[in-house]
Amino acid sequence: MEEFHKTSYAYVCDLNGFLSFLRENVVDEVVIALPIKSSYYEAARIAALCGEQGITTRFLSNLFDLKLARAKAEYVEYDSLITIHAGSPQGRTVFVKRLLDILISLSCISCFTPIFLVTAILIKLTSPGPVFFVQKRLGLNKRVLSVYKFRTMVQGAEEKQAGLEQLNEVTGPVFKIKDDPRITTIGKFLRKTSIDELPQLFNVLKGDMSLVGPRPLPLRDYRGFDKDWHRRRFSIRPGITCLWQISGRSSVPFERWMELDMEYIDRWSVWLDLQILIRTIPAVLKGFGAA
User: pLDDT tens, 36-66?
Assistant: First the structure.
């Protein structure tokens, strides 16, 4: 009890005398700020005593001292809940984000239709295989989604990756080779200009992805994660572009890439999305960090 005396607030009773204090004094509200682990039964008893006497009771929402979490009260049919959000954005701004995704992706698909057609023809003329490359990647809350890209590699490129692992030039679990021998001639141009990413506008339209968000990672890369805080990037819908995309892409070390994803999640707003979209244009035109 000595801790109570170190504050500037008046100490009116101890836990044992709490019931008597409620009975004999004017009490409008009680705020419970006891540590949940060591004082659960005391906190539960105080809440029950206050409820019995009709006294408003409040408790701190951050029960577990979660540094990144945002708490809010919600109500369901059978009870009230304290909901802790440490990742995905919440509220009406999410609707605005989705609306922008739909409107902008539709507009871009309409405008880029000639580029789609020319790119498809060039891919078919320059290398055998399909026009599109569809890869399984991890999206929101680690749901598996099919990500669409224009094919930039030879057929069977994924099967050949195991034999090239020793040539990996980047840190962390991701795989990148600057002069990847699997990339086709037209594929180098498509990657340099990011045209290969344009089919992901259909992923955005479907709702699998957003225009802005952490890049969806292949299953192979996710299996190499060794830090749990990296996995918070999956708490938000993946995107075509992000802070990593406008900060150098493949030239950015993996750890810094993950930090940029966390920064985006923590700072997220519609205005930030618009800023990233605007800054993506010169980043793509310069081709900085493309691989």
Answer: 778 888 989 988 988 888 788 887 766 666 6
Cα–Cα distance, 156 to 154 (Å, whole number): 6
Give Cα 166 distance to the centre of its chain.
30
Is the per-residue pLDDT at 1 higher than 50? Answer: no
Q: Say whether both 191 and 203 belong to one domain.
A: yes
Q: How many CB atoms lie within 10 A of CB 16?
A: 8
* CB of 107 closer than 8 Å to CB of 190: no
Q: How far is CA 226 from CA 73, 137, 222, 223, in A?
A: 33, 18, 9, 8
Choose the weakest-confidence range: 63-72, 128-137, 207-216. Answer: 63-72
Residue 248 vs residue 99, higher pLDDT = 99
Q: For the chain, give the mean pLDDT.
A: 86
Q: Which helix (H) or strand (E) holds 31?
A: strand 29-32
Judge if 265 and 144 occupy the same domain.
Answer: yes
Same domain? 78 vs 98: no
CA dist., res. 224 & res. 222, Å (int): 5
Residue burial 32-67, b: 16+ Cβ < 10 Å; e: rest: bebeeeeeeeebeebbebbeeeeeeeebeeebeeee
Tokens of 282: 């010169």
Name the residue among 170, 158, 169, 132 with its Cα closest to residue 255: 170
Rounding to the nearest 10 degrees, give the CA dihedral for residues 174, 178, 184, 188: 110
Is 201 in a helix, a strand, or coil? helix
Whether residue 29 sits in one domain with residue 96: no
| Residue range of the domain that includes 189 | 92-286
104 lies in the same domain as 237: yes
Q: Which tens digits make up the pLDDT trace of 245-282? A: 898 877 888 999 999 999 998 889 999 999 999 999 88
Judge contact between 287 and 251, C-beta under 8 A. no
